[in-house]
Amino acid sequence: MSGRIQRTGIVEGNLVVGQSGGPTAVINQSLMGVIREARFHKDYIKKIYGMHNGIEGFLKEDIIDLGGKLPRELAEVASSPASGLGSCRKKPTEDDCKKIFEICRKLNVRYFFYIGGNDSALSAGIINRIAAANNYELRVFHVPKTIDNDLLVTDHCPGYGSAAKYVAQCFMGNDLDQRALPGIKIDVCMGRTAGWLTAASALARKHEGDGPHLIYVPERPKTLKEIVADISRIYKKYKRCLVAASEGICDKDGHEFLNSEHIRRELHEMGMQSVIKWMDAFGEMLKDAGRAEKDSFGHVQLSGTGALADMLACVVAAAMKRETGKAPRVRSDTLGYAQRSFAGIVSEVDSREALMVGEAAVKYSILGNIDGSVVLDRTGNGENYHVEPALASLDDVAGLKLVEKGKPNHKPLSDKFLNAEGNDVTPEFIEYAMPLVGTLPPKGLLRRGETLQK
Amino acid sequence: MSGRIQRTGIVEGNLVVGQSGGPTAVINQSLMGVIREARFHKDYIKKIYGMHNGIEGFLKEDIIDLGGKLPRELAEVASSPASGLGSCRKKPTEDDCKKIFEICRKLNVRYFFYIGGNDSALSAGIINRIAAANNYELRVFHVPKTIDNDLLVTDHCPGYGSAAKYVAQCFMGNDLDQRALPGIKIDVCMGRTAGWLTAASALARKHEGDGPHLIYVPERPKTLKEIVADISRIYKKYKRCLVAASEGICDKDGHEFLNSEHIRRELHEMGMQSVIKWMDAFGEMLKDAGRAEKDSFGHVQLSGTGALADMLACVVAAAMKRETGKAPRVRSDTLGYAQRSFAGIVSEVDSREALMVGEAAVKYSILGNIDGSVVLDRTGNGENYHVEPALASLDDVAGLKLVEKGKPNHKPLSDKFLNAEGNDVTPEFIEYAMPLVGTLPPKGLLRRGETLQK
User: What gap in Å lies between CA A323 and CA B311, rounded to an integer?
Assistant: First the structure.
C-alpha cells in the first residue's frame, strides 16, 4: 500500500483542511490531528486554513483561519461530535475541481487535506490530477472517516468504533428492557449499502439468551417470509425477540424493502394489502412534501423516516396474529442521527485513531508524498490489538476501477463475518469489532436461582 | 407530608419487593437500596423476596429469593438499566389485590415495596386497605420511578435525571450535526401526557444560536399552522431549525395530533390530503396487524411507531415548499426506547437518589410507618443543590382524589417552566433540571473569527 511518491524536496506554502459528508463522533479529532501536526512544520507549512462546509464553502472562498486557534478551543472541538468546520454532501464536477485548484493556486495552498468518505477520496484524486496537469505542486490527502466502516483498503474506518459503541449500548439497554417487558422489538440501524454498523449490535450480548437474536444486513437479501419465520422461531424459544436490521436490507435484486416489487408481491400473497396501501400513501405524502429526494450521489434518503421499522413491526405482528390468533407485543425503533453524532459516547480507541490519521496525513505530506489516503493496518488482535497508519492510493480507496465499471465502491461485510443463515454475525466479527469499541458498561442480570414456588 | 403512622412496635416477618411499568436507567439502584437496607434489619426482616415481573408474577407466586445474592451481582444489576426483577404493566383489580394480600399472608410477608409510577402507588394503597380490613399488619411502601417525572408531591422522580441526560446529549449531538449540515430537524421525545423529558432537550444549549430552537409539549396545545410559522421564522433567522416535540403534543381539546379532528381539518385546509390519506392508511395497517392497542390503563400506545415524526416532517416540508418554492432539507427522528434504557448514560445524582429512595422506604417501614410513598424534597439549588427523602401518603402520590373525579393524576410541567408563546422552556426550568442531570460532555464550537474572503 503506497501513494504516489515524488520526492521534490519539501514544498513551502499554505495548508487547507476540510470535512465532508455525514458527521461522526471523532471527525474533529482528525481535524485536530491535521492542525496539531501542521504546527510542528512551520518551516514549510505557513498558514492553516479551514474550509467552511467542505468544498461547497471552499468554492465560495468561505475559509476560516485556523492558525491562531488556541489549543483549548481546539481540544474542546476535538472532543465534540459532528464536523466542527461544517460539512457538505457535494460531489464536485470536473469544473468544480478546476475551480478548487485555481483557488489553491491563488492562496498558495500546497497542502490539501480532505476528511471524508470514499467520495471525498475520489474528489481528491481528481483535484490532484488537475494540479499535476498544470505543473503545480499540490499535496492532496484524504483522511478517512465514516460510521459506515465501508471504505476500501483500510482495516476499519475512524468514526465506526464510536458509532458501533453507541449501537452496542443502545442494544444492551433494549435487550434488558425487553427482558423486563417481553415482546418483539425491531431496531433499524443506519447502513444503506453495508451492514457493519448493524452488525455491531451483536456486541451487546453478554449472557445466554441475550439479544439481538437476529441481525439482518444488506449483504444478505431476505424475504418477509424468512424474517417472519426467524422471529417466530426465536419468540417460541425465548418468549421474546430482539432484531437488528439495516435500513438498507434488500431483496434478491438488491432493491431496498420499501422499493421492492418482490416485497410487494409477498405482501399481496400474505394478504397484507393494508401495508401496500400504506406504502403507496407514504410515497405520495413524501412526493407532495418534496421529500422524495435523492442526494447528488444518487442515494435515496431513507434515514429521515421511520417507514421501514413501522412496516416490519406491522408485518411481523400481522403474520404472528394469524399464526397464533393473537398479535404479540411488537415495537420498533429507528435509531436515527444519534448513531453518528450522539454527544458523549466515544470509543477511546476510535478517538485516538482518528487523531492519528489526521497527524499521519500531514507527516506523509511532509515526507514528500504527493497524494494518498491514510489507511489503518491492524497488526494484532484481542489484547494485542494494534494498528499502524499506512498510505494507500486515492484511487484504490475511492474504488476508481469499480466506479468506472459501474460497480459499488464500498466494502461490504466480509463473508467470514456472517453466518450461513444470513441472519447473524460470526464470532470472527466480534473479535474484529470489539477492540474498536472498547469497554462497554455493566450489563447485570439477576439470576433466577431457585424459585420459591412452582 | 407524611404517611399514616401506627406505632405498634416493629413487626417481624418477610419482605417482598417488585418493579413495575417502563424501565429506567436507575430503577435497579432503588432495588439495591431496598435490599441493602433490609439486610441491616435482620432482627425484623427475615427473608427478602423479589417478585418476578411485578405483581403479575407475584399473583402466580413467581418469586425470587434475593436474600443470598452476593453484593457483586447486586452491584452489577444496580448499574444496569431496566428492571432487573422483570416488570409488568398490570393494574390490579380489587380481586387481584385481595389475592396479593392472601399471598402476603401465606408467605408471612410484612414488608411490601413496589417500585413504580403513580399506578403502582394506587395499587399499593388498595392492597394496604385490604390488609387493614383483615387486621393483618402489612407495611406497604411505594418507591417512585419514572422517566416522565410526572409523579405528584415529589420535587422530581428517580429515573428522570438519567433519561433527561440522554435526551440532552442526544440534542447536543443533533445540534452540532445540524450546524455541520443545516436543515430542519424534528425530534420526537417520550412523554404522552407531560413534557418534562422533552423540555430536557433545552439543556443541550450552550452557545448563542444553539438548538433546540423550539420545544413543544402536551401542556401547550398547538396547531400545525403555529408550528409551521415558528419553524419558518427560526429557519429564516438561523438557516436551520432543531425542534423537540413530545409524542403527546395535542390540539386544544387535548387530543393527540394523530387522533385529532382539528389537525385533520387543518391538513384539509392546507391542501395536504396526502397526509390525511397516509394517516388513514396507517390506522388501517395498525388495525390489520392487531397493533391498534391500548394498555390496561387506557393509554394508546404511540411510542412504538415513527408516525408523528414522519407526519410533522412532511407537513413542514410541504408548507415551506409552498412558501419558498423549494422544500428545505427536513428530517425527523423518534428517539425511542433508548431514552428509558440506554446502557451507560446515567446521571450520578439520579443514581444516588434512586438508591436513597429505596433505602429510605425500608427505613420508614422500620420506624413504624405502615405505608407511604417516598418523595424527594429539594432544599437547595445550583451549587447548593440538595435533597432529602420524605414520606408522603400513597393516596396523595397516586392522586386518588383526582382519579375519583376522573381527572389525570400526573404532574404537568409548571407554568413557570414554560414561556409565554408555549414553544420553549424558561430559565427557571434549566435551573430546576440541570442539577438532576449533572455534568454534560463537551460541546465545542469552532468560532468563525475573521473569514479570509468576503
Answer: 32
